[in-house]
Design brief:
The structure holds two protein chains of two kinds.
Chain A: H1 2-16, H2 18-38, E1 47-53, H3 58-66, H4 70-75, E2 76-81, H5 84-92, E3 98-102, H6 106-111, E4 117-122, H7 127-156, H8 164-171, E5 178-182, H9 194-223, H10 225-231, H11 236-266, H12 273-296, H13 301-319, H14 330-335, H15 340-354, H16 362-388
Parallel strand pairs in A: 1-2, 1-3
Antiparallel strand pairs in A: 3-4
Helix pairs in contact in A: 1-11, 2-9, 2-11, 7-8, 9-11, 9-12, 9-13, 9-15, 11-12, 12-13, 12-15, 12-16, 13-15, 15-16
Chain B: H1 2-22, H2 24-44, E1 54-59, H3 64-76, E2 80-84, H4 88-96, E3 102-105, H5 110-115, E4 120-126, H6 133-160, H7 164-177, E5 182-187, H8 200-217, H9 219-227, H10 230-236, H11 241-270, H12 278-302, H13 306-323, H14 335-341, H15 345-358, H16 363-393
Parallel strand pairs in B: 1-2, 1-3
Antiparallel strand pairs in B: 3-4
The chains are: A alpha/beta, B alpha/beta.
Chain lengths: 389, 394
């Protein structure tokens, strides 16, 4: 009974505390929104390019028509100009993002088995458009070269019976059978950045949200209210239990609000509700365990605050909540497996990407809860010190 | 007596400064932690000091001889390092967890389909928004090369008959000697979007991030001083409210400048960061420290208890850092977000540092950015001193 009274008191205090609302609800939602909006523009990329066909040969006209195919038209607005100089000027003044030039003599060089150039004019401020222009030019070059390669191979294979003109004509038919497409990152094909950054931010902030539990113990001790609680007719365990209950509730509510609001307002998909709920409970438990260890080994709230920031930042960095760790050394990538937030992030993103149920994240859940239990027990073993001193 | 009064802000600042050096945890947070983060982030994303080879994950079963050959060609490419994955699923997970930059999935039956003259597609996986355009271009070229040879071999077989394997060998040989169209790149215009390489970006970003966070967290002392009555006791001494406020501001400012200069010097000495125009960098540190001081003083008036300030400070500082480009370059986000980010002094400071480090700009060129930061600082200081004065006296 005493535990519940203490929990209710803490919850009332928290609800009246504006800063608690900021950390638990406003900040994570705002950040997830900011981040998902930040990277939204990337999905519908548009650019304007300029083409100068100085050659005006059969084959250079094919090149210009490649750029006008439906697929490319979706992302590229094309401007046709007469000369390379004009294309260069437009790109340099950033009127267009990139330029493609087929120089004079291009078609003739192809016919004579030479190695002519296609020139891609790039501006360093439009790196993406530049690399798209390069890809288009390369693909065209590969297709054209493949016709010549087919002719050369057929001749070396001894297709002597067929007249050379006929070989060339037939080789020009058909295109390269292989191509590269953007692959999905999960079986459901979800690549949206908000599906990654939403959970990443939610997990990061829940650590700060639950740190109040340990901090409030330190505060009650400093203000002397702890002595009064101890003097009250209830077991000391009840005080701790009350703190645990209130912290747990606030952590779970905070994460749940985050999930609900991003789903409703930002259209984020979190996946199977039961599995999401289990991950929320486990994540809050692990965050509480770690933050209480920080609190029990701190001598003051000030030190606990500073130590919490260091621990949370370090864990978030290692767990991949902030920055991609793909180019980090192997040891660094392995360390991600030793963070509960890393596992939680994996769990949440796996649910969205593969659409699995609670069974698909059972390993994640066990590891995260394990972290929570071990750190929680370490913290509990030290709480006597907190209560009596 | 007059001399004593004018020296009081300095005395208050010196006192706070001494307190900082007595606390080992603070020292760690102020000096060592930013250094560690710079090192880690520099190594992790900017590949500072690394070999430069990009790891590419490859998966696919039942892809046959042509699949194996494709993997061989990717691994022979300079700058790419192939890592095999047991299943497509594992590779997808690794890419979306960002433990590997890019992945290539070769579909099962790749070899069979190509030999039958059918088209086939290779999946390229990368985590948006950053993507991996150079890796993708390299993979596209390799895949197109192989496709060309298959096409040529099938064509030769069609005309001359015989074994496809022989024709594939002939096509590969012919491919090595045949003429190719060259795609030449011509760069025009001056680079106004270059980013610092190596440790340059994370060093500047962490300088800004940590100077701000440390100063924000320090706002709890303003509250403590007020609550414990230290402020009132100082006022009881021959000191005016203005003196007290100047002292509070000066302590924060001096610690912020000291930390900023420390990270600046550390990055120069240990991470070989070339800051460009040093005078410009120092000016940015000074105005940014001023803005951080203003924000800290404002927090000191907004919150009632020290623990509120202590717990809100770091996440708020991190959030502003994210908006302002301390976590990732604002160059990669959309224009709206870039505009929103420039509400923070962080974004202006990053712009100035990027200009100095990567674009060879001088103090003259970055002064408008410094002026904006100074403006933000002035606004924050004005509002906060006004509020603080009321809080202390009233």
């Amino acid at each position: 009974m005493g535990a519940l009274t203490i929990a209710a008191k803490d919850l009332r205090l928290r609800i009246r505390d504006k800063s608690a609302w900021i950390i638990a609800v406003v900040a994570p939602f705002a950040l997830a929104a900011i981040i998902s909006f930040a990277f939204k523009g990337e999905d519908d990329f548009h650019t304007t390019m300029v083409v100068a066909d100085e050659d005006q040969s059969e084959i250079s006209k094919v090149f210009a028509s490649v750029l006008a195919t439906p697929d490319l038209k979706k992302i590229i607005k094309l401007r046709i100009v007469e000369s390379a100089d004009e294309a260069e000027r437009l790109t340099e003044t950033e009127a267009v993002a990139a330029g493609l030039v087929v120089p004079k003599g291009f078609g003739e060089a192809i016919a004579n088995g030479g190695s002519p150039q296609i020139i891609v004019i790039q501006h360093p401020n439009s790196a993406v458009a530049g690399s798209i222009a390069q890809n288009i030019a390369r693909r065209f070059a590969a297709e054209t070269d493949s016709v010549r390669l087919s002719v050369a191979t057929a001749i070396s294979a001894g297709a002597g019976g067929v007249p050379p003109d006929e070989i060339a004509r037939r080789a020009a038919q058909g295109s390269i059978p292989t191509s590269v497409q953007e692959g999905a990152l999960g079986t459901l094909g979800q690549n949206s950045s908000s599906n990654y950054f939403g959970p990443a931010m939610a997990i990061f902030f829940v650590f700060f949200t639950v740190s109040f539990g340990g901090l409030s113990l330190l505060q009650e001790r400093r203000l002397g209210t702890m002595q009064r609680l101890i003097a009250a007719p209830m077991a000391r365990g009840q005080i701790i239990l009350g703190k645990i209950i209130s912290t747990f509730i606030i952590g779970v509510v905070s994460l749940s609000i985050m999930v609900a609001s991003t789903s409703l307002l930002l259209g984020s998909n979190w996946g199977n509700p039961l599995a999401v709920a289990a991950l929320i409970l486990a994540t809050v438990l692990a965050a509480m365990g770690i933050m209480s260890v920080v609190a029990v080994f701190s001598t003051s709230e000030e030190r606990a605050g500073a130590l919490s920031s260091i621990v949370v930042l370090a864990l978030s960095l290692l767990g991949g909540n902030f920055i991609p760790i793909s180019q980090a050394p192997k040891i660094f990538r392995t360390l991600a497996l030793f963070t509960p937030n890393g596992w939680a992030l994996r769990g949440f993103t796996d649910l969205v990407a593969d659409g699995g149920g609670i069974a698909s994240v059972s390993t994640h859940l066990m590891v995260i809860v394990g972290f929570g239990l071990v750190t929680g027990l370490i913290a509990l073993s030290q709480t006597r010190k907190l209560l009596v001193r | 007596m007059k001399r004593l009064i004018s020296r009081t802000p300095l005395t208050i600042a010196a006192l706070n400064f001494k307190r900082l050096f007595k606390d080992r945890l603070s020292l760690f947070f102020v000096f060592l932690f930013p250094a560690i983060l710079t090192l880690v982030i520099g190594v992790a994303i900017f590949d500072a000091g690394g070999s430069g080879a990009v790891r590419v994950g490859v998966s696919g079963s039942g892809t046959g001889a042509l699949g194996a050959e494709l993997i061989g060609r990717i691994s022979e490419t300079v700058g790419l390092k192939v890592e095999r994955f047991a299943s497509d699923d594992e590779l997808r997970k690794a890419v979306r967890r960002q433990t590997i930059l890019a992945g290539v999935i070769i579909p099962s039956g790749y070899d069979d389909r190509l030999r039958r003259g059918e088209a086939d597609q290779v999946d390229f996986l990368t985590f948006r928004p950053q993507g991996a355009p150079t890796v993708r271009a390299a993979v596209e070229a390799i895949v197109a090369d192989q496709g060309s040879e298959v096409k040529a071999a099938l064509f030769a077989q069609d005309l001359a008959g015989g074994d496809l394997q022989d024709h594939l060998a002939k096509a590969e040989l012919a491919s090595q000697s045949s003429a190719r169209i060259e795609v030449a790149s011509q760069q025009v215009g001056s680079n106004t979007s270059a980013l610092p390489t190596g440790f340059g970006y994370p060093a500047a970003a962490n300088l800004i991030l940590f100077v701000f966070i440390t100063t924000l967290v320090d706002s709890q002392r303003i509250i403590e001083n007020r609550r414990q009555g230290i402020s009132r006791r100082i006022l009881a001494a021959p000191a005016t409210a203005g003196t007290l406020l100047a002292g509070e501001a000066l302590s924060r400012f001096s610690i912020a400048v000291f930390q900023g200069l420390f990270i600046f010097a550390m990055a120069t000495a240990f991470f070989d960061v070339k800051w460009g125009n040093s005078l410009g960098a120092v000016v940015v540190i000074l105005v940014f420290a001023l803005a951080a001081t203003g924000a800290s003083m404002l927090l000191g008036t907004v919150f009632r208890t020290a623990e509120q300030a202590a717990s809100i400070g770091p996440p708020l500082g991190i959030a502003l850092g994210m908006l302002g480009g301390c976590m990732w370059p604002l160059e990669i986000v959309g224009s709206t977000m870039r505009a929103v980010g420039h509400i923070t002094p962080h974004a202006w400071a990053m712009d100035a540092f990027i200009g100095l480090i990567a674009r060879g700009q001088t103090l003259v060129e970055i002064w408008p950015k410094a002026a904006v930061i100074a403006g933000i600082a002035a606004l924050l200081l004005l509002v906060s001193t006004n509020r603080l004065q009321k809080a202390i006296i009233g």
